[in-house]
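2024-03-11 09:14:02 INFO receiving multi-entity request
2024-03-11 09:14:02 INFO entity count = two
2024-03-11 09:14:03 INFO echoing inputs for audit
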Amino acid sequence: MKRRTVLLLGVLALFVSTLGFAGIGAASTGHEGDGQVVPPGGGVVPPQETQDLVNPPAPHDAAGSVMHPNYALLDHDAQNVLTTGKPISTLNTCGQCHDVDFIVEHNYHASLGLDDLGTAGSTESGRAWDTSNGPFGRWNPITYRYLTPPGDHLVDLTTPEWIMTLGTRHPGSGPATTARDGSDLETRSSDQADPEASVLDPVTGETIAWDWETSGVEELNCFLCHLPNPAGDARTAEIGSGNFAWAGTATLAHTSLVTQSTDGWEWNPGAFNSLGQVAGDRLPIRKPTSEACSQCHGTVHTGEEPLTAADLDEGWSTLTTGQIYSDQRLSDSGLNFRDKEDLSRAWDIHAERGLDCVSCHSSINNGAQVQEDNATKPDHLVYDPRRSDLGDYLNKPLHEFAKGDTAQGTVAPQYDNTMRTCTGCHDPAESHQWLPYQDRHMQVLACETCHIPSSMAPAAEQYDWTVIHEDGTPVVTMRGVNGPLDQSSTVISGFEPAILLREEADGTKRLSPYNLVGSWYWTHGTDADERPVRTIDLEAAYLDGGTYAPEIVTVFDTDGDGHLSDAELAIDSNEKEAAVAARLASLGLSDPRIVGEVQPYSVTHGVVGGEWAVKDCQECHSKDSRLAQAIQLGNHTPGGVVPTFIGDGNTESTGFMDVQDDGSISYHPETTSGEISILGSTAGGWVDWVGLAAFLGVLAGIMLHAALRFWGRRKYGPPHHAETREAYLYSRYERFWHWMQAAVIIALVFTGTVIHWPGTATAFTWMIFAHNILALLLVINAVVALVDALATGFIKEFIPSPQGFFSKAIQQTTFYVKGIFMGEPHPFEKVEGEKLNPLQQATYFGILNVLLPAQIITGILIWGAQRWPDLTSNLGGLGFLLPVHTLIAWFFAAFVIMHVYLTTTGPTPLASIKGMITGWEEVEVMDEEVVS
Amino acid sequence: MTSEDSTGPDAAANTEETTDGGNRRDWVIGLIAIILLIVGPIVIYTGVSSSVQAATTDDPWSGIATRDPHTDHSKLMTGPYETGSDVTKACLECHEDAGEDMLHSEHWLWENPPVSLPGRAEPVSTGKKNTINNFCTGIQGNETKCTSCHAGYGWEDETFDFEDETKIDCLVCHDQSGQYVKGGSGYVAEGVDLVAAAGSVGTPTRDNCGTCHFNGGGGNAVKHGDLDSTMLHPNETIDYHMGALDFQCVDCHETVDHQIPGTMTSVKLVDDLPVACTDCHSIEPHEDERLNSHTDRVACETCHIPQYAVDDPTKLWWDWSTAGQDGVSDDPHEYLKIKGSFVYGENVIPEYYWFNGTADRYLLGDPIDPDGVTHLNYPNGSIDDPNAVIYPFKVHRANQPYDAVNNYFIQPHLAGEDGYWTTFDWPSALAIGAEDTNMEYSGEYGFARSDMYWAVNHQVAPASDALQCTACHSDDGRLDWEALGYIGDPMDTAGRRTSGSDG
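2024-03-11 09:21:47 INFO inference complete, emitting structure
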């Protein structure tokens, strides 16, 4: 970039010198008389296009809408500001054409919860001091300051001070013009005791009266969003110094209309036409750019200038979630990423594809965007052309914007899910043909979970207000970065969001990405009157004349260097906690205590296309599944207080908190419960321990048995079998069936094991396919065999005959645990048509009637979770079926080794195996001949 | 149940042989059947074969013909050689057809078969031999200088014998000794070791081609914006194919019988032997359908060559009218007394025009509008041309001499004792130049604007540096939609155009 600038300068310099040559040429060459005709327009100056080649100007005008007419700027009294010199009244000015009453009235950006104010503790957040769901009344531990409700004797933020501080992210009107009772603030009389007409003196801690007449009120600032280049800083400065009436005028500081001097703002008559109107091109009005939204909502970046750390400063969503909306490739940015060269993706695919904020968050009555909810739209309609007329819309544009339903989104709840969701534009079925079990994945995963693999900017992890720095700021920990952004050694890694279950608008619970921010702070008062300790009180408790009070240093300065580092600045001992509590109590605060809370923030921007999405099966289907990953909430746990989830987040918080020995605290989401279970991520659970125990138990038994046989053989000599004979025991089909089933079962156990403990990703997908096919073969083979057995009567062999069964079983057991060691003959003769001894009959009866059907049914249900999700969930859900299936698989594995071992107990060790291969088996002949 | 009646060891013993044999056969057949039954469905269902196939196409060399190692000629070509032609004669002893092939090649003839152009009665034959440009403007009369890049020896004037095989210069393309240099009229320069050169011959490398093609227009990076000496040893950001993959020119310009494919519309108006990205790449190579949907209207080069002249500045403007001044210090990037003043640009954003692979052509003698800009080779194509795509160009703009009465450009005589570069006298240089090209010179001259269009198709950037959507589809995008024939950004207007049918 720099290089191109330098180059451009170089080229410009060349032009200058070329012009110089032209001059010299005219003066000195004397060729004019040689027949040279100088064509009109010369030709000696390089054409403008040549300059453009190196750095062409935009062929389009990026300014305002060409439709916007010239208009007069009016003040509060509807007089032209040129004549009065007063600040502009945006409502009077824009109200010349637009229905500003309508716009202000239907405008959550303006009201911010003013309409919604109730008594403290009346909201669902769970905080005893919240008075509304909007930023005007809802406390936030990041901004910390508390809008004091009437009646509180400890005042933190009054209305004027709310405007001066938090109000810089408020566009005006609502609480900046209207009192809580609906009256005009402008007419409110100064009153030291009125939290709407006073401010807190930070020195004395007493309130002093506020003169609304002098400050004026802050009307809804149309320019802030509708100018291509609003002067946000100048506006903030005016608001911050209490000159509310001038905020709108200051927003025009980047135009030629006003200039600021020490006396204030002055209108520039030269910028107005003879009618006292300003031409549209001097004050270009347009639909809000993404940059306009970014003034409050988070980092937006367009253009080729590299995005740098300075761009990450103020954005709310960037701070809380690391979201950045930019078409720039990460590798082209000025941020110091790990493996930056490989990050050739844009921050957000939608930004890259030319969508701006209002593409999705459009005005709800914008005729170009409005779309009826699928819930009410008749099925036969694809598109409904009935919508507001353009003129009506421009007169009464609804300033309520389509929104989703984020975890932190307590604002404007009546407009939740008015926005097109991913599937409102995309057809995922079409683009996810490659994805195995597509339906199942779509049922349980939000699109964002795979398409926002990581948030690529630092985001808040922990806000610790239980301690403060000497400048009054809390100790803040950011995730996704390894140090302060202003240090060159700092590397940004971004972070993988936590994945929590969330109920979506369609009623389905899906796993969705979040950042979780842990906050700890002091509160005081009884449970009903609980309030966060004011910053003014925190400072009084910690500081003494701007530096830490000696009592604080004594307790906190563990290394004794007289300086409190961030590591020391943490309440990690009872002593520290007691010391601070005592100092807070001495300020008159009752029962000061530490409270911890967790606020989930939905991650919905920073979307990547398919190429960059999570596609590797192992990312989720493995022991380290990103779906089950813990997320750290703090590198220390102030006061040992385990935080609780805020009450109005729309996520499930059924996981658990885990405080480590080093004091750090993490949240472990629960992603294997009920209806959701992630293949491959549950390996090593209790099922595996039970299964392994069964398997090892059988193995140990076999080894013991074999050892005893070996011992018996040495002691009693070779088995003294009676006579043996060759018997044709197994028909061709039987043998085929047996080996087919053996091969399939072994292959099923193998593929199942790989699925349970995934190896490489491709193997995982392949193994699932193979497992399904093998299972199908097993079922077919079993069914054909069953039909055959029923048809031929062969099945009778498998049915234990009730008569004398137990005595026979005991006889057989006695043989296995005793006789076999002494070389005794088998108690029952193996003859054609009666090959199975009673124990075998019992075992097969169990396997064929219980284990095999159970395995087949659980397998089908697991496979069918995507076809018939209701059936699967009614029969226990994957959270139940998968462990059962795994456990039975362990039993099958145990059965296989026992089965193989027992084949060696014939007259010779290999006799039975040979029999199953050739059909002919050497069997013992009993004394009492049994005739077949 | 049991299919065989035999019971008891005797019976078994009697049938042992057959049974064993039968069993072994059964066993084998059974085993095979089981394996087939299990593996068959899995293979069919998971499509193992398709994934194997997909893997092979990732090899960047899969589209490139493999060559046998070149024969070591050092023992074969022992000389001694007096002249370049002596080497050529030796070459032709074995490579009997090569001479005949070369005699029909563009590199030898500098002229292309006649083609019909709209608005002209007769087909026209263009080539370096007879076609005007806006650099040094043309070779006629200036042969001794220009033909130092001719693949032959001794093209001094129009009497050169284009049928004489022994005048072919084999070494300029095949020398690998690195010390072979050509001088005036294409003759071998002084001091070249011809035996070493002849013994070193091999497949042409970037150095061979670059000798002329990187230096067209009289110096490095003058003519082509996308071919310059940085490409002798490029890194991947200069040219992905040559930098990251070490492609040689002839890997893409795959040559058969000395006919080298590839066309630049500065000299050749119809692309009968094209080289295209799609020779190796699919026309829909992107994972992303939205990107693939661009490929019928947007050339690959448009997105994949975001800038040209990446690391060496190229000439964008040449003003002949300021030439001949004394007292101005020469700087090859700013001003030369013999040539006038220049503007160079580095990392230049191309200009974009519809292009169907052919171009119109200004021919010597065509009238010009001296007040306007004459397009010497305007790319053919428009939004309504189904074969046209939006294509990146370097546009070289110039102010060059013309006959102010007859209103046509004249190629001045530049080289030699009576050329402008010696005399600095336009009237005589133009008079001689007119004579060389069989034109009439009125005696009155001026300078008029001309543009030349150079398609940009080298210096392909790594995919990660390709243009993104907003490079064009944004308020400050690089395409001028209205100029291209769209109502506005087709993203906003559903692709509708100002004329023709929708597409």
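2024-03-11 09:21:48 INFO post-check: Chain A touches chain B through 85 residues (CB under 8 Å).
2024-03-11 09:21:48 INFO post-check: Chain A has 32 helices and 23 strands.
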